[in-house]
Structure formats: C-alpha cells, structure tokens
Amino acid sequence: MTLVKVGFSFIGIYSCFLTWGVLQERVSTTSYGDKETKQQFKYFIFLNMIQSFMASIVAFFYAKITNQNFEKINSSLLIKFLQLAFLGAIASPFGYESLKHIDYPTLILGKTSKLVPVMLMSIVLYRKRFAFYQYAVVILVTFGISCFMLLQPTSEKKKAAEPSSLYGIALLSINLIIDGVIGSTQDQIFSKNKIKGQHMMFFMNIFSGILMVCWLLNPFNPELSNALTFCKIHPNVIIDILLFSLCGALGQCFIFFALHNFGSLFLNIITVSRKFFTVLLSVFLFDHKLNFGQWLAVGLVFFGIGLEVYMKQKVIKKLDKSMEEENRELEKLIDEKTKRKQTNGVIDKVKKDKTL
C-alpha cells in the first residue's frame, strides 16, 4: 500500500507540474494580439493570486467530496495557516532576486540542497528526531542530484556567468531557511492535529490569495489595473491563465497528499528530484550521453529514494503488526470479561436458588 501511495504521489506531482511548467512558459512568453497590438503577459503576482484562489476552490470541493469537514479547524490553526501563507509569499522574492547574484553551480547546489534546511528547521524549531536512515537518505539524494547536475555539460553562457556574490548567497540562504521553516511547521501541524491535506491546502491558498489581493490593491502598485486591462484587450490570455491555475491546483492536491502521508522531507525528495528525472528521461528518449560520474550519481539517488520507501514500508508493517497484537490482546480481555460476567451470573443464580 505504501509503495502504491508513493507511486501515486510521484506520478501525480510530475505529470501535473511538468504540464504546469509548459503552461507557465506559454503564459509568460506568448505574444498576444495582432502585429500592431502584440504584448506579453508580465503580471505574475496577479497570476499567482488567481492560482491561489483556484487552488482553494479545488481544495474546498476535494474536501467536500471526500467528506472532510472543517469543524476541527480552530483559531490557533488558522493563525498557523496564515503564518505559512505569509512565509510562502515572502520566500519567492528572495529566491528570484538571488538568481541575479549567483553563478550556475551555486544555483544548482541551492536547488538540490532543500532537504537539508527542512531537516535542520525540524530539529531546531520542534526538537524533532529523525531515524539514522533518514539522515543517510538526505545525504545520498542531495549529494547524488548535486553531482548529477554539476557534472552535466553547461553552455558557455552559464560558464561565463559572474561569480556568486555574498549578497546573492545570503538571499538564497534566506529562501532555503524559509522553505525549511514552512516544511517543518507543516509536519508539526499534521502530527499535532487531526486534519487532512485538503484543509491545509484550502486555508494556505485562501490566505495567500488574500495577502496578494492586499498587495495588488496598494494604490502605488498599478499591476492589478494593468493586468485587468491586458485581459480585456487580449481575452485569449484568460483561458491560458485558468488552465495554468487549474493544473497548479491539481498538482497541489498531490503535493498535500504526499505531505500528509509521508511528511515534508519525502515531499522535498520528490520535488527536488523532478529536474533530475526530467534530464534522465531525455537521456532515454533522445539518446543523450551521461558520463561515468553522472551514472554513479544516478545510482546514489535511486539508492536513497529506494531506502526511504523500503524503510517507510517496514515501519508501517511494524505498526500494523503491533496494532494486530494489541487488537488480539483487547479481544482476549473482552472474552475474559464476558466469561467472568457469565460465571458471576451462574453463581448469583445458584445462590438465589439456595435461598429459595
């Protein structure tokens, strides 16, 4: 069952977000209109706002279809969701800005080391303890993907890029730390509260959308009016925006499913390894060549992911076995209690007969 859930998470996240990436490129690079009125859509906070509201709608109906009510959501949880939405909103600008000030190897190392801050923040903020094999998985996957990407031939343009500045590395570090705080807090919420992924997806997106509305309504920010004018002049973009948002919302359903069932560490293994598997797929489809070091890196990543899945399955089997034993003990106690009641009933009847 665990293996099926893992496969379901991998396929769902990859298929949705590979399609989402294509749609994102389409929205951001397509020139809408005829030769005289050609324009490109450049209003990405507006785009993210639409996606957040679309995701909250999908999450709401997903919860209703699966009979998950919202009664268990209290005020302290709402505050936590609002904090997560705010952190998610401020993380992206740090990430985007850092790209202007770091070189290609630093970018790759930054993107592939996301597992480390998630684990680190879980330890620092919530005193969470990890099994020894989980540390091994993080090291294997991070080191394997980093080596694979760094050993990949790069263009002359990337090689000639400016070296990383301390400012760029600082921005990237802040982005990674915020990601770590978000992941570890999500794990903490699921472990302490009986809620489902649909609940978190709904509230995080609705709060995120509201925060972006507040930013867009700022009188010094013309993005909202410009985006609405663009949509009025080029109505074709509306279809692309809605498809992009719907695909992202469906992808989030799989993300929160994986988060609820396996935790943020495993979710980050899936998301971090997405580009790795994309490159690997192109090797088999287009007969690209990998060097010996890259094949070793592939082996490390697969070994790390395999170890994580195997150990999770082993832990679940152990839990199932202990639950079966507890149920047997409970049934024994119930049988003994029933027999005792029956015996006591017979004794009482005998005593009553003797008195008569």
From TrEMBL:
Coiled-coil portions: 316-343
GO cellular component term, pick one: endoplasmic reticulum membrane
Source organism, top-level taxon: Eukaryota
A Pfam match: UAA
Keyword terms: Coiled coil, Endoplasmic reticulum, Membrane, Sugar transport, Transmembrane, Transmembrane helix, Transport
Transmembrane segments: 6-23, 43-65, 77-96, 108-126, 132-151, 200-218, 238-258, 265-286, 292-311
Membrane topology annotation: Multi-pass membrane protein
Main location: endoplasmic reticulum
Subcellular location: Endoplasmic reticulum membrane
InterPro entries found in the cross-reference section: EmrE-like, SCL35B1-4/HUT1
SUPFAM superfamilies recorded: Multidrug resistance efflux transporter EmrE
GO terms assigned for molecular function: UDP-galactose transmembrane transporter activity; UDP-glucose transmembrane transporter activity
Family listed: Belongs to the nucleotide-sugar transporter family. SLC35B subfamily.
Name of the protein described by the UniProt record: UDP-galactose transporter homolog 1
Organism, scientific name: Gigaspora rosea
